[in-house]
Amino acid sequence: MSMRAHVGDQLIVESPTTGATERDGEIVGLHHDDGTPPYDVRWSDSDRITLVFPGPDAHIHPTGDEPEPQREETGRRGSATTHSGARSLSEAVVMSLVEDATAAPSMHNAQPWRFEYSRRSRVFRLRADLRGALPHSDPELRALHIGCGAALMNLRVAVAHEGWEAATRLLPDPVDPMLLASVTLTRPLGDEADPAALYPAVRTRHTSRYPFAETEIPASVRSALVDAAHREHVSLSFVSGWHLQYVVDLALEAEARNLTDPGVAADLARFTRTTDDTRPATEGVPEYAFGPRRRIGKVPVRDFAGGKSIPGRPAADFETFPHLVLLSTSRDRIVDWLRTGQAVERVLLRATLAGLSASFVTQALEWHDLRWPLRDPTSAMAHVQMVLRLGYGPRGRQTPRRPVHDVLDIEP
Ligand SMILES: Cc1cc2nc3c(=O)[nH]c(=O)nc-3n(C[C@H](O)[C@H](O)[C@H](O)COP(=O)(O)O)c2cc1C
After folding, report:
1. Residues 248-260 pLDDT 10s
2. Cis before residue 211, ω within 30 degrees of 0?
């Protein structure tokens, strides 16, 4: 069969003797509509683009979903078996799938996404919505892409739970960078390769800014979380020893800078909602989700009150040694941010099912000079994309989302 590729796929060239990857690059241009060679390839080792006629030692690695390496627990709603002959989903099902997608976390709950669904081709499209951009805290739009990646993961889980197999493509149109992904419903799912088991956590996962117990996380749960990230091509490591102290210090330093930075304060003011706020309560972080003020402990939970005192807000003692995990990727492209978002959500859903609560500790990632030192220099980690805090404690509360009809267009 002749080779076929899409823009964004990876071309991998293996050594004919050892089978090891000799060179890899991203396909950035096609010369034939059907995806056959040659390709314009940007090589990862030099960042140069060359025209490539792949030989027998080369193969394509798709950007989107790959066959899962192992079977996941089932938990399907199974309705696609009844839909199997149907040409499209009902409007109610489309809306409910998008509602599941929008239960995802996003920085400051800014919800920087829009969805389209085409009935004819059974395709969901996820678009970035720049109204949810944070110009001061996230000028490169990295966090925006991570939030959209998390929504994409939820959509994939919900589609699988609905009983459909789907093909996901990241950045499917090179001339439309705001089109972040397409999810095409191909056919009803078989029993294999099914992320539907994560579905019960889609609506029960919340960010919890409460103290967690200093209980160990069992090794089996830790390895399940490493596996969850790995399935989305992202590395996850638990931070320990001197590195834990270092990561905490970097986050505290970032948090201190945030408290005196007018731009960060402006982003925060736009997206926090105190009880007397008259703006629509369908976005942003509501006061009830701020969590208690930290009395003691070294947990750098972001202070959504911006250092201001809020009448009636309790104080609490947080952990001395929080469980922090870092998610990292070998490169730092938009596609890596989208993968990180999917990995973050996959890890959070898996953690929720394992009885863990979680919050984000991303402050140091938002300052250029503090992001690089976050990595563990003794590991192969390249670009840290996310810092999460995990533990056993209160679940956190549901926060509002914009209504689905505000973020979804259904095309015939
Ligand atoms: C990229 C990204 C960065 C975030 N950074 C923080 C953070 O530093 N501190 C925090 O408490 N929450 C952080 N959050 C969590 C959001 O505030 C949270 O997802 C949003 O308010 C919605 O609430 P929910 O997660 O409970 O649904 C972040 C989320 C994303 C996706």
Report:
1. 999 999 999 998 9
2. no
Which residues, judged by CB distance below 6 Å to any ligand atom, belong to the binding site of ligand 1? 105-109, 143, 146-147, 150, 206-207, 209, 285, 301-302, 359-363, 396, 399
Beta bridge partners of 128: 113
Q: Give the span between the Cα atoms of 302 and 361, in whole angstroms.
A: 7
Q: Confirm if 103 and 205 have CB atoms less than 8 A apart.
A: yes
DSSP for 254-289, written as a single string: HHHHHHH-HHHHHHHHHHEE-TT--S-TTSSEEGGG
CA distance 131 to 214: 39
The answer to whether residues 24 and 12 touch, using CB atoms and an 8 Å cutoff, is: yes
pLDDT of 183 over the 80 cut: yes
Question: Does residue 89 surpass a pLDDT of 90?
Answer: no
Q: How far is the CA of 365 from the centre of ligand 1 (A)?
A: 13
What spacing in Å lies between the alpha carbon of 382 and ligand 1's midpoint? Answer: 23
The residues, any chain, with a CB within 8 Å of residue 190's CB and separated by 6 or more, are 165
At residue 37, φ and ψ (nearest 5 deg) are -65, 165
Q: Which residues pair with 117 in a beta bridge?
A: 124, 410
Return the higher-pLDDT residue of 117 and 80.
117
Q: Which residues contact 276 (CB under 8 A, 6 or more apart)?
A: none
Nearest to 356 by CA among 321, 323, 389, 391: 391
The neighbouring-strand residues paired with 324 are 389
Going by alpha carbons, the residue nearest to atom 13 of ligand 1 is: 360
Ligand 1 atom closest to 285 (CA): 21
Number of the ligand 1 atom closest to the C-alpha atom of 142? 1
> Can you name the residues that pair with 411 across neighbouring β-strands?
118
pTM for the full predicted model? 0.82
Task: Tell me the CA distances in angstroms from 205 to 96, 198, 296, one per residue in order.
Answer: 17, 11, 26
d(CA 385, CA 344): 10
**Sign of the dihedral defined by the CA atoms of residues 185, 189, 194, 196, in that order:** positive
- The CA distance from 189 to 82, in Å, is 12
